[in-house]
Write a structure and sequence with these properties.
single chain, alpha+beta, two-stranded antiparallel ribbon, 2 helices, flat, rRNA processing
């Protein structure tokens, strides 16, 4: 049996994978470990008065591919509008 350096043994003596891949929120592609141009953005959820709710945020992951094509801002606006964080910002214009 070959040992992997990317696992550890939990308290129940099970081997657990350390790396959990992320998916790009805009394209649904898996973000690989070597994609150093990818970003993860956390946007705080707010109450009716505009104050941040502690421990509550919406997370978006954008791959380096989306960022390199210059579509990150448009994708972030689209995703935030779908989640109800923005209103009347994004419209499909192509």
């Amino acid at each position: 049996m070959k040992k992997s350096i990317n696992t550890y043994v939990d308290p129940l003596f099970r081997h657990v994978e350390l790396y959990v891949p992320r998916k790009c929120s805009a394209s649904n592609r898996i973000i690989k470990a070597k994609d150093h141009a990818s970003v993860q953005i956390n946007i705080a959820n707010v109450d009716e008065e505009g104050r941040a709710i502690a421990g509550s945020n919406t997370t978006y992951a954008l791959s380096g591919y989306i960022r390199a094509r210059g579509e990150a801002d448009d994708s972030l606006n689209r995703l935030a509008q779908q989640d109800g964080l923005l209103k009347n910002v994004w419209s499909y214009s192509r």
